[in-house]
Amino acid sequence: AVLAQQKKLVAQMVRDELARAGLANPTKEQLAAAEKIAMDQVRSEFAPDKMRAAFAGVFADLYTKEELQAQTGFMRSAGGKEALKAIGGQPSPDAAAAVEAFHQSVLGKSIRAKQRILNQKTAEILAPKTAAVQTKARKALQDYAATQK
C-alpha cells in the first residue's frame, strides 16, 4: 500500500513537471520514460546501502544489542514477516496478535518506549533525502522534456 501511494505521488510529479516544461499532453511512452527517470532518482537516493548507512548510527545509539537482536528475531519470525507484509494495510489476526505479544515483552516495551525518538530521527534523515530526490528528479524531467519537444 505504501509503495503504491509513492508510485502515485511520483506519477503526479512527473505529469506536473512535464506540463511545466511544456509537454502538457505526453504520450504513454513519454510518461513511462519520464516515470522511469524519476524512479531511478528515487532508487538512487534511497538505495538500501545508503539507507543502511544512514540508519546504522541511529539504531546503534538508540538500542542495546539485546533490543536489536529481539527486534531482528521478531521480524524474521512468521508473525513478524506477516506484520511486515501488512504495513500500510490490515494485518491478519495472527499477525496482530504476534505484534501485540512482542510489544508486551520486556524488550518489546523497551523498544516501543524509544519509538518517538526513532520517528524523529527518521524524519531528520528522510527530509533532506526527499528534498534532494525531488530536486534531482525535477531537473532530470526538465532535461527529458526538452528532448521531447
Walk me through what this model shows.
This protein has helices spanning 2-20, 28-45, 48-62, 65-76, 78-85, 93-104, 106-113, 115-147. By secondary structure, the protein is mainly alpha-helical. Helix 1 runs parallel beside helix 8 (115-147), helix 2 (28-45) runs antiparallel to helix 8 and helix 4 (65-76) packs across helix 7. The radius of gyration is 20 Å and the shape is elongated. The two termini are 35 Å apart. The mean pLDDT is 89.
Outline the secondary-structure elements.
Layout: H1 2-20, H2 28-45, H3 48-62, H4 65-76, H5 78-85, H6 93-104, H7 106-113, H8 115-147
Helix pairs in contact: 1-2, 1-8, 2-8, 3-8, 4-5, 4-7, 5-6, 6-7
Question: In a nutshell, what does this entry contain?
Answer:
With 149 residues, the protein is mainly alpha-helical.
